[in-house]
Structure formats: structure tokens, C-alpha cells
Amino acid sequence: MFNKIKMIPRSRVNYTFFDLFNLSFIKPKKYYSKKILLFLKSLFSQKNILLTPSGRGGLYLILKSLPQKNVFVPAYTCNAVIEAINHAKKSCCYIEVEEKGFNVNIDMLKKELIPGSVFIATHQFGFPTEIEKIKEICDKNNCVLIEDCAGSFGTRISNELTGTFGDFSFFSFDSTKLINAPLKAGFVIIRDDINFRKLKGIYDKEIQPMPFLHRVRLFIKALIYTLISSSNIIYKFFHLFFFESRNIITSETTRINPQLNEFYKYDVTGWQSAIILKQLKNLDDIISKRQILYNFYQQKIKNSIIKLPMESLDNSWVCIRFPIMIENKIEFYRKLVKSNIDSAFSFTYIVTPKDYRFAHKYAEQVLDIPFYYRLSCKEQNYIINELNKL
Ligand SMILES: Cc1ncc(COP(=O)(O)O)c(C=O)c1O
Asked: Is-cis flag, bond preceding 183, omega within 30?
């Protein structure tokens, strides 16, 4: 079905080529961003929300507004989180993750959290962390609780949306997340009014309108990005030239950018906001497709060398990845490539010290098979067939 000149991409954004040509400039400035904020405020029943240049940009602003020095994170996390902590000039401390699951180990958190610090509770890939217990531990230790909801937009715990438990939370509209902005955006929720005013002051000082040339560059990048993943033939050639011919498997590295780049600096534009808003209006469908696909993979993948992620029992999770675990994942990845299926590598190159055994086990073994809104039924069935054959 997928001959040699086609390949299923590792990721594909929700918006289409045509969405990039929206007419946002004919509406008053801020029209779309105001609509997004209204939508989010109603969805989360929260009044203090700000759009941010990215998830990491949101975390950076939160941390800059806090006096605490030590920031604790689960040891299996995105390097962008560590980058934001560094930029905010805080010290990063790690807590080991669970043996089964990708989130923080609660017993280790209880033992190691230093009173008067900050803890970032990540709902990794959309799998809910034990936030109620974490909140109790943070309250007891007088610690600030920030929820990392970069990958958990829509996931609920006891029927409440993730992002509504912590003192702060941040979300990402990156190209691999539930809602996609070209090429990144995000938002933060701030529970307390005083904290909100403080953060807004920092936001007003640091965030600038996106310069014209940068907007043009962003538009061109988004065109290329959308074009590449919209056709399996074009993607095959892209994969050959970008990955195979350079003998690389991912553009992820252990390098932490020492400079504040565009993901920390620029206001979300009207054009980006129009693209985000269109998806938010379709949120229920986007969520349900992901949940259906998650359950489909859970039921249909039957290969003893693949360890599947946890089963979702009541559709309260909205996952942005279907992270399978494989002992020799690079070899497995290459076999999938031969079958013309590409996969992504979440956090393969973590900067966490080597002693965090489980975090490194996940880094070594997690492979993300194609899992996105615009994955067709034909592609899904093909992936299952190939996975079960390997
Ligand atoms: C768990 C987690 N936190 C934070 C981020 C950073 O989000 P962004 O890429 O929008 O800066 C990501 C992004 O990949 C992530 O997966």
C-alpha cells in the first residue's frame, strides 16, 4: 500500500496549507487573541490567562515572577523546561520518575522536595500526574506548584482539567501538541490575582511585537512545514535528504540554548491566533479523534517486543503521543523506516544526570509512532499491520 516513494510522517499539524492564508489582517489587531482568551477563560473557569510565545516562554515568565531559587522537575522531561529554568537564573533539581508511567515518583518527591522551593508537575504526554497528592506535598512544604500542561491540554483528573490545580500552569501550541500554532505559541494560567499582576508586569516589559521580517520568515517556514507533511511523497524525499542522507534520526540534542530566542520574546500574532482559534472551535473533534486513535492502537498492536503505554479507562486523558517502549529502539525505528513509517523521539537526549535510572530508561526506550489528528484510517491500519509484523 505504501510503496517506496511514500512515507507516513512522524508528525503532521492540524492546520492546512489553506489555513495559512487566513485574512487575519482585515480584523482589528488583537481580535483573534481576545477571542482565544475568552474561549480559554470559559473552558478553564479561570480569569487570569495570558498567551505566550511558547510553552517554555510561559514557564520562563512564571519563574521570573517568583523569588524562589530552587526548581524541582521530574527527571524525564523536555530539555526546553531546563532551558527556561536556566534563562530564569534558577537552580534545577531533579526527582526520579515512576517505574510504570512517565511522571514523577511521589515517594521520591516526598523525600527530596526542599521546603520553600518550586515544583513543576508534568503531565507527561497528556498522562495525568498524581496532582492531588503533589498539591498536598507542596502545600505542606510551602512550595509553589506549577503544572506543566504542554502535552496535557484537555486531560482531566476527577473531572477537572489539568492546569487548574497548581498555583500556575503553562501550555504549549507547538506543532506536536494537541493544538498547533505556526511554529509555536502557548498560554499560562495564574490562579492568584497578585501573582497575575506581577507576571503581567514582566510580560509587558519583555514581550515585544513580532518584527515584520520575522513574520515573513515564520510564514515561509510554516508553508514549508505544512507542505512537507501534507504529502507522503514529499515527506519521503524530505526524510531521505534531511535524516537518512545525514545519518541522523532526530534534530533533538542535549544542547541547551544559552540565548533567549524568539520562543521567549515575541507576542503571538493575529495570524497565529486565527489559526489557533479555528482549531479551538473544533476542540471536541480533535480530542475525540486522539482518544479513538489511542484506544485503537491499544487494542490492535499485538507484538511481544513492544511495550504499550497505560490503558486509558474512561477517556479522561487526551494524549499527544502514543509512546511505545522498545529495548532496541533505534534498530526498530530503522525497520519501521524501511516500511515507510517514520517515528519521533521524545526526549531521547535528556540532560538529566545519569543516576536517574528510570528517566534514562525512558529516554532510551520511548519511540513515538505516528499519532495525530490528520492520520487517515488507511494510514492507521497500515501502521498496525506493519508493527505487528516486525
Ligand atoms: C513536557 C513539555 N514541557 C514543555 C515543553 C515546551 O513547550 P514549547 O515547545 O512550546 O516551548 C514541551 C515541548 O515539547 C514539553 O513536551
From this structure: yes
What are the two backbone dihedrals, phi and then psi, of residue 344, each rounded to the nearest 5 degrees? Answer: -105, 165
d(CA 238, CA 304) in angstroms, rounded, equals: 32
CA-wise closest residue to 130 among 153, 154, 110, 150: 110
- Indicate left, alpha or beta for 132 from its phi (over 0: left) and psi (-120 to 50: alpha): alpha
Angle between helices 79-87 and 55-64 (to 10 degrees): 30
Number of CB atoms found within 10 A of residue 43's CB: 16
Which triple of cell numbers denotes residue 105?
A: 515518583
pLDDT digits (tens, 9 = 90+) for 293-351: 999 999 999 999 999 999 988 999 999 999 999 999 999 999 999 999 999 998 999 99
Sheet holding 144-148, edge to edge: 49-52, 186-190, 168-172, 144-148, 118-122, 70-74, 91-95
**CA pair distance 377, 292, nearest whole angstrom:** 11
- Which H/E stretch holds residue 169? strand 168-172
Question: Looking at the DSSP assignment, which residues form a beta bridge with residue 376?
Answer: none
Does the Cβ of 8 fall within 6 Å of ligand 1?
no
Atom nearest to 57 CA in ligand 1: 11
Rounded to whole angstroms, the Cα distance separating 58 from 51 reads 8
- Looking at residues 228-249, what average pLDDT do you find? 93
User: Where does residue 260 fall: left (phi above 0), alpha (psi -120 to 50 degrees), or beta otherwise?
Assistant: beta
CATH 3.40.50.300 fits 18-206, yes or no: no
How many other β-carbons are positioned within 10 Å of the β-carbon of residue 141?
Answer: 15
Kindly state the cell numbers that stand for 114: 526542599
180 CA from centroid of ligand 1 (Å): 12
Cell of 248: 541522523
Cell 511558547: give the residue: 54
Pairing of strands 168-172, 366-368: unpaired
- Counting from 1 in the atom list of ligand 1, the atom nearest the Cα of 173 is 10
For 151-170, letters b (16+ CB in 10 Å) and e give: bbbbbbbeeebbbbbbbbbb
For the Cβ of 345 lying below 6 angstroms from any atom of ligand 1, the answer is: no
Task: Delimit the domains of the chain by residue range.
Answer: 18-206
Q: Locate cell 507533511: which residue? A: 229
Q: What is the pLDDT of residues 119-147, one digit of tens each?
A: 999 999 999 999 999 999 999 999 999 99
**Hey, whose CA ends up nearest to atom 3 of ligand 1?**
150
Residues 386, 335 contacting (CB under 8 angstroms): no
Q: How many Å apart are CA 184 and CA 261, to the nearest integer?
A: 12
